[in-house]
Amino acid sequence: MGPGDAVDGRVFHVKLPGHDAMARRADEHVVPTRVMLPRRVVDGPARQVGKRLLMALLVLAATVLIVWLDRAGYNDNADGKVDLLDAVYYATVTLSTTGYGDITPYSDGARLINVVLVTPLRVMFLIILVGTTLEVLTERTREDFRLKRWRSNLRDHTVVVGFGTKGRSAIQTLCATGLPKEQIVIVDPASKVIEAANAEGFTGVVGDATRSDVLLRAELQKARQIIIATQRDDTAVLVALTARQLNRGAKIVAAVREEENAPLLRQSGADAVITSASAAGRLLGLSVLSPSAGTVMEDLIQQGSGLDLIERPVIKAEVGKSVRETEDLVVSVLRGHRLLGYDDPAASPLQLTDRVITIVRATPPPGSGPSGPSLPHLPMSPHHRP
Fold this sequence. Notes:
Elements: E1 6-7, E2 10-11, H1 21-28, E3 34-36, H2 45-69, E4 74-76, H3 84-95, E5 103-105, H4 108-153, E6 158-161, H5 165-176, E7 184-188, H6 191-199, E8 203-206, H7 212-217, E9 225-228, H8 233-246, E10 251-256, H9 262-267, E11 272-275, H10 276-289, H11 291-301, E12 307-313, E13 329-335, E14 338-341, E15 355-361
Parallel strand pairs: 6-7, 6-9, 7-8, 9-10, 10-11
Antiparallel strand pairs: 1-2, 3-8, 4-5, 12-15, 13-14, 13-15
């Protein structure tokens, strides 16, 4: 589907903003679709090989030293004596299990040392060398096992399409409310972006989210909620259409740049649409007219500091009371599928099955002190001017 295509028999036109740098790179470089699980930070391949090579050389040097110190107990078929070069030669062919037999231990002490020291060193040498090869061979099997276990355990998770500024901010808000990182899957066409997400502990899928096979790799059909934070509005529409087709029950929240594209995105299956450009513009205008009001709005948007906007169920002590009689500052009441304003006569009295949207003081994080973060002093006069 593209701009001007039909949806349910109707033709819609999507207003397209200019491509930004990330969108252009995503279009120009198509990468294979794959799931990338977060992993512990380990040394690079070159450093790992270097460490094992150093260990192998240390084992070889120890073996040479043992043979050289006990050279009197060895016999060289060529000249009958063992010098330093012969000790190196014997250690090399012994550790590699070649064993030509031209230099042999003939004394009881030399044979005992071979049994007690040289043989364990030979085993260690082989483990070091063969271990590198085995690790490479088993890495794919281990990764496949982790992937299968991840797929079997993943349910009711959150899929975030796009790991740009909007996607990151949405994830930070979700994590601040207690959602584990293991319950978040990120989909993005750029492999470097997914690598950055892995470094932060998130699972990522590299690929084009407008394709159903990519979303299926993210287990979208089992997701509880989907956040669409793409760089382009037409991409958001296609992702919403595909996501809704794969998962009829998930809650889909999407962001668009142009406000006139919001209705199309809702018709494509999104439950809620945020117009990023208009929201930012309104916040700018509000901050100009009333810096204090702009500060309050910005504080509400930032999760975890100052004031927070939360949704919670009505407690038993609040049942039967009016909206204004609650301890929290209630903004709206959610009754069934109806959203009632605080000044709506139908919102009071509160019912046990209601949910309220309130403004509360954010819980201070551990170590931030007993008082926690606070808002700057805000003038209370409605006629305040900068």
